[in-house]
Amino acid sequence: MEPRTPSETAVTLTQVMNPEHANPLGNVHGGWILKLIDEAGSIVASRHARHPAVTVEIDSVSFREPVYVGNLVHVQARIVRAWRTSMEVEAIVEAEDPLTGERRITSHAYLVYVALDRAGRPTPVPPVQPETEEEWRKWHEAEQRRAERLARRERERLSSR
Ligand SMILES: CC(C)(COP(=O)(O)OP(=O)(O)OC[C@H]1O[C@@H](n2cnc3c(N)ncnc32)[C@H](O)[C@@H]1OP(=O)(O)O)[C@@H](O)C(=O)NCCC(=O)NCCS
Questions:
Q1: Pair 21, 55: CB distance under 8 Å
Q2: In this structure, which CATH number among 3.30.1330.10, 3.10.129.10, 3.40.50.2300, 3.30.2000.10 belongs to the domain 6-159?
Q3: Domain ranges in the chain?
Q4: What SS3 class is residue 4?
């Protein structure tokens, strides 16, 4: 399969935060942000694989700063690395005050997706071809994150027996 670069499949999703996304003080619920992160990640993974992709892991997500009603939320998602059937995607969340243009990074996450064939089985995906120094650095670091996830998955499997 031909490798694909991260920039070929990267997306930015933008959504305005309305009162239904927030508590009575106007702070947006973290769940809405997570939903946007997962939507953006899933678009990137399925564009890379050219197959539907399901989420198998979302690494810990912190909400470093509040997002308020009226803010625009931008989620930038890019593929980092692909293995046989799984792919790691990075998501960066920024909140923008549309009246001042001020932007703040509010969250960051790595997610893992698996491409599925028509029968719902994991199916092979193309490799990622990093282009920039930063993309190469993250590509190398991804192997360690994968090892940690798979070790955690194995511990959970053993403890649920
Ligand atoms: C995706 C799914 C079909 C994979 O099934 P599985 O039995 O784990 O299949 P495998 O063991 O062959 O794993 C498939 C790939 O996922 C990777 N993987 C599975 N769990 C993982 C995890 N927790 N973290 C990182 N990678 C994981 C495997 O390493 C393998 O990667 P590779 O082919 O690139 O080497 C199954 O886990 C599933 O259906 N999960 C639910 C997904 C879903 O519905 N998500 C939406 C939220 S409800």
A1: no
A2: 3.10.129.10
A3: 6-159
A4: strand
Index of the ligand 1 atom closest to the CA of residue 125: 34
Per DSSP, which regions of the chain are E strands? 11-16, 53-58, 72-82, 86-96, 103-115
Ligand 1 centroid–CA 67 distance in Å is 32
Which residue's CA lies nearest to atom 35 of ligand 1? 84
- pLDDT per residue as tens, the chain (161 positions): 899 999 999 999 999 999 999 999 999 999 999 999 999 999 999 999 999 999 999 998 999 999 999 999 999 999 999 999 999 999 999 999 999 999 999 999 999 999 999 999 999 999 999 999 999 999 999 999 999 999 999 999 999 88
